[in-house]
Amino acid sequence: MSDSPSFSLSGFVIGAPDPRELADFYRRLLGWQVRDDAPEWVVLRSPAVGPTLAFQREKRFRPPVWPADGDHQQMLMHLDIEVDDLEAAVNHAVDCGARVAGFQPQAHVRVCLDPVGHPFCLYVG
Predict the structure, then answer these.
(1) How far apart are CA 22 and CA 62, in angstroms?
(2) What percentage of the chain exceeds 90 in pLDDT?
(3) Sequence-separated (6 or more) residues with CB below 8 Å from residue 27
(4) Which of 1.20.1050.10, 3.10.180.10, 3.40.50.2300, 3.10.450.350 is the CATH number of 62-125?
(5) pTM across the whole model
(6) What does the domain layout of the chain look like in residue ranges?
């Protein structure tokens, strides 16, 4: 018998200078719906069952640098997003406001940067 409590991952939180702006980018990118909307906190939910994606205001936000160089803010985590068509997904991400990162470490993955600089990866599963 385990003394460990039960854990269930319910969501991910991303820091942003303006939570509403960044949430709107991911809403358009992923096609998710807004569940909670406040000036300091926005939550998106997937139409499918799964964790939420929340955005929290960070007053002293510093965008991460990709790839990390040791002298600037490093990313703390990133999102991996499975797609069915990598080229179409990259084009859609750019249309939503993303930038394709200059450094691409893998041929079958595209590292993109969201409007405030968080890296995320698009890949075909």
Answers:
(1) 14
(2) 77
(3) 33, 34, 44
(4) 3.10.180.10
(5) 0.90
(6) 7-60, 62-125
